[in-house]
Structure formats: C-alpha cells, structure tokens
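To fix ideas, we quote verbatim a fold written out as tokens:
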Amino acid sequence: MLAIRLKPIGRKHQISFRIVVAEKRSKLNGKYREDLGFYNPATNKFNINNERAKYWISVGAQPSDTVYNILVSAKVIEGSKRPVKIKKPEIKETETKETPADLSKEEKVNESVTEIEENIPSHFAESTEIKNNSTDSTDSTNSTEN
C-alpha cells in the first residue's frame, strides 16, 4: 500500500521535510517512489506538485494527516482538515473531588481515610475490623496497667 508522507531532511533543530510517495511499511529515510515537494514547519511554507499528488491519490495512495492538511491548504483536494495532535482524555467529574481550602489538615485526612475505606472490598474490610478490635483491646489493657 502506498502512502504520501513526510520524509525528514535537514539538521537537528532545523528540520524540514520532503513530501514523498513511499510504501506504507518502508522506513522514513528509506526508498520512495516519487518526490512531490517540500514542507518547512519552521516557516510554515510548502510547495507541492498538484498534478502528481492528484495522480497518486487517484491510484490509491493514502496521505498522512499532516500531508492531508497540506493538500487541503494547497487546494489539491477538498474537505476539512484533520486533527493532528492527539487530545488527552478528559477526566470525569466523579473521579476528581475538589476539597475546599478552608478545611483543616485533620478534616482533609479524615476525608481521605473515609474515601479509602469506602473503596476497600468487603473481604478486606472484615479482616481490618478484626485487627482494629484486637488492637483496641490491647490498648485498653495497657492503659489500665499504667
């Protein structure tokens, strides 16, 4: 399968790209079928051979998202641009719980402890109750001895 994609050229931190037609599975710096133009992201300038780009698309070459947006800007193809940057998933309201700033440290700790206790599975909760009861009885015996 053919792809129209960007081939990196230039130096580090001064990168520019060639727009090439290559096999989808080939390496970025590997062999390519045809050079269609260039794209410089630093200056946001590009030049593309419109006729050859239309030909390769008609043959079945698939442009990458960035190349697709360049082709739309050059009016080689019609359509809306594709989003290139991946958005992070939004955090649900139930997962985030905001605590008011006026709470004391002890209240915040107590709130977090109750949240943790609510999320403990039932079979673990029973064993912690037994441990808590046993520590309570030893504490009471130690306090009476003193």
